[in-house]
Design the sequence.
């Protein structure tokens, strides 16, 4: 364990070279990688945080939109119901009106027909009566002598 | 070797001696000589140097591989474990060293991992590598570089040079001299006390020089002492025959703590000394 220069200086030179080498090409890349990763992790965490926040915001927004849509749908449904019942009521009223109109028309027509028939019948009956009276009277009486009685009869019919 | 331990104090003494001897090379009379270098100041411990450089290269190769393929998004398992070490060193340096320097953190990383790996060689069974080496004709082999005081001194001297460099760079030569002479007792600047000033300055200088030199000395001797003692106990345990296994295991577990702790202490003290060097008192 005596001191000798060879080993002492040899070790000093070896250490100098090793430290220099370590300083130049070993330490910087490794530390760079570590520090870069630290930054990346910090960035990633921040991004995740931001994502979480915007997700929450989006969820609230989506909820609002869904609520809005639901309200609108309810409104539309209500309107449709109202409209439908209106249409039904309108239809019913139209139907009733149409029926009454048709009924009135039919009734009037029937009355008209009846009147005409009655008139016709009346004319024919009087003609028949005159004819038959004529025939009878031709045999028994002079028609001109009884003219006034006959016309009085026809008017009474 | 372990089997002939315990037969006598001479045999066991020889066994320990053999284990504590470095493989040395030196120049005697213009000739390269192996292992006959006792007391030769210019010798070199080939085994310590070999394992030290080998482990240093292993460390750099491994970390360089990770650095080259460093992926930000998908780190592999090796990268993850390397990043844990780098993270620990980076945190320690940031907490302790408040100046700006590109050198400190890589220096601390190199010291920590390198010393840790050198210390870790202690956990290889003490007879394994020397046994293999003796088969190929290498008579001595110390596999733990940090049990060689030259290795720890080499590292702490480098740190010492850095301490001086950082001090002078941040405070100038004048600041460095002032630091050595004007602390801890401020010499009087006027009046009667002026006579005492040179004595106070001399006293300060001695005190501060001792404390300055104590830094590299304590740094290297702490590591060396711990590892040497640990290695010695491994050797002693290896001598007791088959019963060594549970003991060896227990000491290895305990030693694992020392291995890590000493590497960490060496690194932290280096950082602390260098941060003291740039700080104003």
Sequence:
């Amino acid at each position: 364990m005596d001191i000798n220069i060879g080993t002492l200086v040899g070790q000093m030179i070896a250490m100098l070279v090793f430290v220099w080498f370590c300083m130049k090409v070993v330490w910087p890349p490794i530390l760079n990688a570590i520090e870069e990763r630290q930054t990346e992790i910090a960035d990633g965490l921040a991004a995740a945080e931001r994502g979480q926040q915007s997700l929450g915001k989006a969820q609230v927004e989506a909820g609002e939109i869904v609520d809005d849509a639901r309200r609108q749908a309810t409104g539309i449904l209500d309107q449709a119901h109202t409209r439908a019942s209106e249409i039904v009521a309108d239809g019913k009223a139209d139907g009733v009106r149409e029926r009454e109109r048709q009924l009135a028309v039919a009734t009037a027509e029937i009355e008209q027909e009846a009147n005409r028939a009655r008139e016709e019948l009346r004319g024919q009956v009087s003609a028949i009566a005159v004819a038959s009276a004529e025939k009878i009277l031709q045999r028994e009486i002079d028609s001109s002598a009884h003219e006034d009685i006959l016309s009085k009869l026809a008017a009474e019919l | 070797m372990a089997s002939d331990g315990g037969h006598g104090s001479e045999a066991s003494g020889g066994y320990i001696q053999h284990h504590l001897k470095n493989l040395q090379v030196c120049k005697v009379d213009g000739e390269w000589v192996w292992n006959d270098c006792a007391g030769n100041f210019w010798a070199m411990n080939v085994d310590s140097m070999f394992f030290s450089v080998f482990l240093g290269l292993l460390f750099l190769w491994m970390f360089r591989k990770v650095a080259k393929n460093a992926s930000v998004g998908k780190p592999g398992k090796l990268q993850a474990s390397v990043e844990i070490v780098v993270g620990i060193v980076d945190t320690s340096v940031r907490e302790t060293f408040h100046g700006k320097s590109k050198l400190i953190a890589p220096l601390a990383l190199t010291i920590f991992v390198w010393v840790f790996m050198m210390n870790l060689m202690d956990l290889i069974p003490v007879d394994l590598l020397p046994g293999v080496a003796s088969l190929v004709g290498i008579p001595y082999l110390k596999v733990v570089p940090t049990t060689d005081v030259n290795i720890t001194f080499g590292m702490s001297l480098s740190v010492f040079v850095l301490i001086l460099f950082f001090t002078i760079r941040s405070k100038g030569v004048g600041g460095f001299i002032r630091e050595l002479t004007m602390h801890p007792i401020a010499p009087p600047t006027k009046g009667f006390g002026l006579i005492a000033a040179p004595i106070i300055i001399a006293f300060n200088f001695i005190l501060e020089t001792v404390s300055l030199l104590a830094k590299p000395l304590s740094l290297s001797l702490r590591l060396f002492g711990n590892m040497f003692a640990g290695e010695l106990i491994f050797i002693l345990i290896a001598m007791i025959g088959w019963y060594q296994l549970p003991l060896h295991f227990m000491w290895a577990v305990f030693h694992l703590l020392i291995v890590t702790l000493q590497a960490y202490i060496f690194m932290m003290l280096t950082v602390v000394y260098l941060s003291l060097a740039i700080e104003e008192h």
